[in-house]
Amino acid sequence: MSNGRITRRGFLGVSTAAAFVPVAARAATADPGTTAEVASDEAKGSPGLEFGSPARVDGPAKVTGSARYAADEVSGADVSYAVLITSAVAKGTIHSIKKEAAQSVPGVRLILDHTNMDMLPPINAVYPKGQSHTVFQPFTTSEIRYSGQPIAILVADDLETARYAAGLINVEYDLADDGPKSTIKLAMDRPSPIAVPVEEAHDQTFGNVDEAFDKADVVVDAEYETAIEHHNSIELYSCAVRWSPDERTLTVYEPSQWLYGLRAHLAQQLGLEQNAVQVVSRVVGGAFGGKALAMPHTVAAAIAARRIKRTVKLHVTREQMFTIGSYRPGSVSRVKLAAQRNGKLLAVAHDYWAQTSRSDPAGIPGAEATVAMYDAPHVRGRDHSVPTDANAPGPMRAPVEMSSFFALESAMDELAVALDIDPIELRILNEPTVHPTKRVPFSSRSLTECYRRGAELFGWAARDHQPGSMRNGDWLVGWGCASALYPTYVGPASVRMKLRLTDGKPHLEVRLAGQDIGTGLATIVSQVAAASVGLAIEHVQAIIGDSNLPFGSMAAGSRGTASVSPATLMTANKIRQRLLEASVSDAQGPFAGRNLNDLDVKAGTISDGRIETTIADVLSRVHGNTIEEQLDWAPPGMPPETRRSVQAGTEGAVGPITDTHAMYAFGAQFVEVQIHRRTKVIRAPRMVGAFAAGRIMNRRTAHSQLMGGMIWGLASGLHEETLVDPRSGRYVNGNLAEYLLPVCADVKDVTVEMLDEKDEVVNPLGIKGVGELGVVGVAAAVANAVYHATGRRVRQLPIRLDHLFEAS
Ligand code: MOS
Q1: Nearest residue CA, atom 4 of ligand 1?
Q2: What is the pLDDT of residues 456-502, one digit of tens each?
Q3: 400 Cα–ligand 1 center, Å
């Protein structure tokens, strides 16, 4: 047995190795206030609290238009407007940039490119530890490494002038002698993918898979491909930067999933102390990895602003979203499954290749997730990265799992067909009791229950397993299923609370540098605080989205709720205790001299069961009418140096915080497709997902996350694909008109079932997280349904109708 190295995923976690972080880094980020170190398991307090499932607290501001997005934040006479100029070629060097015509346009203030840009220190990339998806600094070199590479930034008095002048810039390139290889397939020199030189594999092995294949009754051996997908949040990557008059401090307004990370990156690049940089991101208009990591244009905008001594607002276009930020890399998988006639697996082998850039050797793994799935005496997962002439990829909703589960779960379906076993029964038969390569138990694992419940809701028992056997008039009907898995991450979080009287009513402010990307973080902290302090949620205000607040978890890796809920509960419990202390020590109050434990707070009142008084009444006699606390929470077992590093924005790492258990959420996905007999149009009239993700803190927001994930999974199965011109390396559909996304007519019934699951290992509240789980496995369920409808196995995403014609 050998365990693979597990230190490569800085942004999502799996970094148990100690990080070196100067002590000063923590000091620089510490907030003033009553900071206390409290043992993690104090958050277990207040058993029996009901958290409810309130609607989103930020909903009214968003739908009425009062929410302030980053680009809404700055205005006024000192604001200039910037645009980016990006490369028209994918590989070569800039021969010349002719700027004279643009420079002579009235209102143009500055054009920055590699000839006049500041020198910048090397970037800390997220692999293994850092904040950016890439180490490449595109503005500082004449070298072109990918199409759409930003090469210059132009600043003018207004946006129209900036756009017009940018169009007058003439760039001449010297093309590289060998053409770009911008897709994974071109870079792998197929058809011999196994033989091509790729970066060293990330290997997780138990047993000896190669020997097992000789002894098997049935072997499935197939290759699967997934498409490049790009983030298309409605809110663009635009930012605004403002220096203080003495140029010592910088404020950046930018939509971010990781305020502390972006702050650390900007400070490092611009030579500032961390506390000289403030990043503000009060609301985020959509994000699922695209806004997790620092992008090069923000530093360029800050340098431009410093040069011209003005505030700069940088407008990023929809097309530029495709090349300046990260994306889901194209992947190729080879999956080999060996089984006995009775369906028991003998071996599972998954080799996974994901594309990366020329600059960034590490990439997104895939097989490290699939090895957790099925029991076999021989299991091997190997991850490889393939350098391409493209921008560096990065996280996108279930970055590791979406693509690799398409491969594994398609292969499992192929095995079920080969064995003539029901695909659900095949999976249940191969449920492991321990993690197949790490050989530790699961903290909890309810995949079988998910399949049983999902099958019941879907009506799976009525399925005729024969492909092409089910019809609805001219439409062939196919039913497919697949498994979902997502790791459970958790990180430290700090929360500051202030309970005070406002107009005679109690008002609780909850402050933390959390980011709500639409998943519901502001709602979760509000409901937890409200339940603990005994207030209606209307009396609680969550103040988030500002790096000057205490560290509040990165909004990535589905860890937000698991991380901030214990921290919020612990801090709220402390406020509650202080409130009770005040009530028993209040000589004028009804509970003078009583024991705290006899009292309860609920619905704005404090009561001993017979007498009651209001929280407002108690607060009115507290010094300053205010109770304030700030507490830091960290997951049990997290090494202090990891915690410091996370809190300093140096890394996003979040465990696993135990090596005694494997921690994952699971789900079972069911999809029905209907395919027109003649035109091969593919429709998906219904989907069912049954999930077990520990304790669900808010069924309403969790339902929304899981449903959204399933719809994105359908999009990966049938719609989304960034197409690359193989000759030029350019994206040919880098816009919302031609990049296919599902619309309401593509999505019909979506049933989300959340099973109750108790987990006492993952964190004190037993939360696993649901942000990404819903997307995993859907594309495989679509492919399996397409096979069931037609008898045709499509091993490439997205599945298009032309895959289903005879000649294809
Ligand atoms: Mo997520 S892909 O960790 O934002």
Answers
A1: 289
A2: 999 999 999 999 999 999 999 999 999 999 999 999 999 999 999 99
A3: 10
